Amino acid sequence: xxxxxxxxxxxxxxxxxxxxxxxxxxxxxxxxxxxxxxxxxxxxxxxxxxxxxxxxxxxxxxxxxxxxxxxxxxxxxxxxxxxxxxxxxxxxxxxxxxxxxxxxxxxxxxxxxxxxxxxxxxxxxxxxxxxxxxxxxxxxxxxxxxxxxxxxxxxxxxxxxxxxxxxxxxxxxxxxxxxxxxxxxxxxxxxxxxxxxxxxxxxxxxxxxxxxxxxxxxxxxxxxxxxxxxxxxxxxxxxxxxxxxxxxxxxxxxxxxxxxxxxxxxxxxxxxxxxxxxxxxxxxxxxxxxxxxxxxxxxxxxxxx
Length: 305
Fold this sequence. Notes:
Blueprint: H1 2-15, H2 17-23, H3 25-42, E1 59-63, H4 74-80, E2 84-88, E3 100-104, H5 109-121, H6 123-126, E4 131-134, H7 139-153, E5 160-161, E6 164-167, H8 173-185, E7 194-197, H9 201-211, E8 216-220, H10 264-276, E9 282-285
Parallel strand pairs: 1-2, 1-8, 2-3, 3-4, 4-5, 6-7, 8-9
């Protein structure tokens, strides 16, 4: 019986995705209620009520941890410093300090402790930055949340925001595009306190850039065709922080593995075409070595080579 129901459900998704979305309304509303409860219990904030997150330029640089970061010379970082930027996860290993930060949260207990150890070494540079949280959607992560949040709040002195994050119910690129078209038609991206998320941190970060009104979004170190982090290069051996380990166990970048879900490059392509373009927002990559350069232009920066 369960097999038959799943077969019918999949047929409905393929033929009328919007009908399937209607069946997900309760789940989506529950995500928003969970976020509201988490903000109340943890003393977290909304982006709309946090002036520290106000846009100060028309361009946003999203700073990832891929190996191509090492291809960007000092002049690049001097240029980026003139615009808004947001780092995420283990970006704080790098010497460049962004304007905002996003933490995927909570991860495994060991990962949270590792982040805390690095943060303590760079606390003076980062403690007052506005932080954005990317929540997990599994029961295991929900169980870790209270202690992980307490650890995080003991480190950070600036505002910590938790938007209402909706995990997009999409298993194929066609479904992702349908979802984005409907979301755009309903103009839900005009609410800065609701974010969509699918598969990887970069999806929520791109959406953050859209809701904040940036006209250009530049992806730096979002390589996806290698599992190597920038700090694995020998030049970072003398870093003042303990460098995070690379625990990858997959043959390719985890977020690109189709066996684990819809590949992130297909998600980004759908978001770019169905959400960003209609809003007049251009998405770029910083380096042509990124897998996303197959369909995104390279940011026209004279000093990048």
